[in-house]
Amino acid sequence: MYILSSKQISLADTATIKNKSISSIDLMEYAATKCFEWLHSRLQGQPIKIHIFCGIGNNGGDGLVITRHLIQHGYNVNCYVVNFSDKRSDGFLANYNRLKELGEWPKVISNESDFPKVDYEDIVIDAIFGNGLTRKPASFTKKLIQYINSTKVFTLAIDFPSGLFDDKTVSDKNSVLRAGHTLTFQTPKLAFLLPENKDYINTWEVLDIGLDETFISELNPKTHFITKSDVIPLYKPRNKWSHKGNYGHSLVIGGSFGKIGAVVLSTKAALKIGSGLVTAYIPKCGYNILQTSIPEAMVEVDNDALLSYYNVKTNATVIGIGPGMGTDEKTALGFENFLKENKLPLVLDADAINLLSMNDTLLDNLPKDTILTPHPKELERLIGKWDNDYDKLDKSIKFSIKYNLILVIKGAHTIIIQADNIYVNSTGNPALATAGSGDVLTGIITGLIAQGYKPKNAAILGVYLHGKTADIAIQDTSYETFIASSILEYLPQAILDLFNQETEEDKDEE
Q1: In angstroms, rounded to a whole number, what is the distance separating the alpha carbons of residues 283 and 250?
Q2: Which of 124, 139, 197, 218 has the highest Cβ tally under 10 A?
Q3: Closest CA to 298 of 347, 244, 242, 238
Q4: Angle of helix 376-383 versus helix 351-358 axis, rounded to 10
Q5: How confident is the model at residue 246 (pLDDT cuts 50, 70, 90)?
């Protein structure tokens, strides 16, 4: 699924109007009616007081359409026009007149004294500012947003929470509405998926308003939201006549005294995702642990308590390196020599990334499309500090292009960056905020590459499945009791879910 910018959405609107021979007013009617239908299906005529705040642009026009439908269906509605400018969009004016024809006149808010009383039990629909806002709300409009926030009332934002920008960071946090739920049009928006905007976006969903999909594809968007329908084509089914040699040999390098568990998790994950063979290369102190805990894996050993020599004998297909490895001076020197000689595909995590950040000249030794899986602090060590999440993405893209690498930036919405392409994952929840979950992800991606998946596809599929395990698990367990080993426990269900044809609409009907 694409993630479109406000400019791309505007272009798609124009193309849809032209190609489908409809008016902009008709498109607004359709989009806003979808919002009404969403709300009506949940309220079912309940006598809840609904306050609708409408700006004087197209977002306000959407609000006026919603108001009209709610009134026609007998709801208790108060509609307000937030009069922050003398300008009016054509869509706003057309739907304002339609309301007047029903005998309904929205109340005009021109200053603080016009603010209505809003009770906690009410519902607020925010249609003040939509996608494409370029300036922060000011004057009484900012005060209105602050007032709505202070009521703690449930707020439904139409397309965008008012005051939130599509493509830049918020400079005044007090000028943004904190939406309880957001109904956005056609595609997800990048702003909804960035950590810095977590206070303004609680939950959200996309309403398909019928924009021209062919035109959208021709825009060649560079930002993607990875869903089930995106990963299904990536999956490689197994052939009846295949054997373990067809599915590659994963080599997992890592571990140090007291941190052998990280390698255990990565090794087991590479096996669990389907790598034909898996070898762990570890310090001698972990030999008994590996052989006992994972009888399916082979083991090679290095120095007693840490890695020094990297004298690997295994003829591997791909190497995952870093979990529990440490940054000892001997480990760092051996790692440098290893990178200079290695030609195999790599997945680097944890201390392997930390060692790179301590000696960035090593980045030139990484094979093309090497995957790095940093958490935010590890990423900062690689690319430097950033001013905001948009700056972080910009720096990450430049880093990826410079070194021909793939970044898997772990977070609530893990982001995969390959050159100027951004892939934002849709799965996962706070259950994954537990020690070792990153080690499991390293093993999953490594095991997928071993089986012949291209690195980018391995990263996308691996991250999706990794997150999906937590989504499935949380149906019968809690966030707190989910641990890294649980990812491996639920991985089979995550894979099987790819073939579950039940849709979200089916689930809603249940």
Answers
A1: 18
A2: 124
A3: 244
A4: 20
A5: very high
Residue in the block written with tokens 């790095």:
372
CA distance 157 to 162: 8
pLDDT > 90: percent of the chain: 96
Which residues 6+ apart lie within 8 Å of 67 measured at CB? 52, 54, 77, 79, 99, 104, 106
> If you count DSSP H runs as helices and E runs as strands, how many of each does the chain have, helices first?
17, 17
Q: Which residue has the tokens 């999706």?
A: 464
Q: Find the distance separating the first CA and the last CA of the chain, reported in whole Å.
A: 25
**Whether residue 436 has pLDDT greater than 70:** yes
Task: Report d(CA 352, CA 381) in Å as an integer.
Answer: 12
User: What is the Cβ-side half-sphere exposure of residue 138, based on CA atoms within 13 angstroms?
Assistant: 5
Q: Which helix (H) or strand (E) holds 330?
A: helix 329-341
Res. 356: pLDDT tops 70: yes
Name the strand (E) or helix (H) holding 50.
strand 49-54
Which helix (H) or strand (E) segment holds residue 339: the answer is: helix 329-341
Burial class (CB in 10 A: 0-12, 13-18, 19+), 281: buried
Residue 505: the pLDDT is 41
State mean pLDDT over 355-378: 97
Q: 389-415 pLDDT, tens per residue?
A: 999 999 999 999 999 999 999 999 999
Instruction: Calculate the average pLDDT of the chain.
Output: 96
CA distance 326 to 504: 44
Which amino acid would we find at residue 164? L
Query: Do residues 45 and 73 make contact, with C-beta atoms less than 8 angstroms apart?
Result: yes
Phi, psi for 87 (deg, rounded to 5): -80, 145
Q: What φ, ψ does residue 34 adopt, rounded to 5°?
A: -60, -40
Q: Which residues contact residue 214 at a Cβ distance below 8 angstroms, ignoring those fewer than 6 apart?
A: none
Give me the pLDDT at residue 504, please.
44
Residue 510: predicted pLDDT: 31
Dist. CA 136–CA 131, nearest whole Å? 13
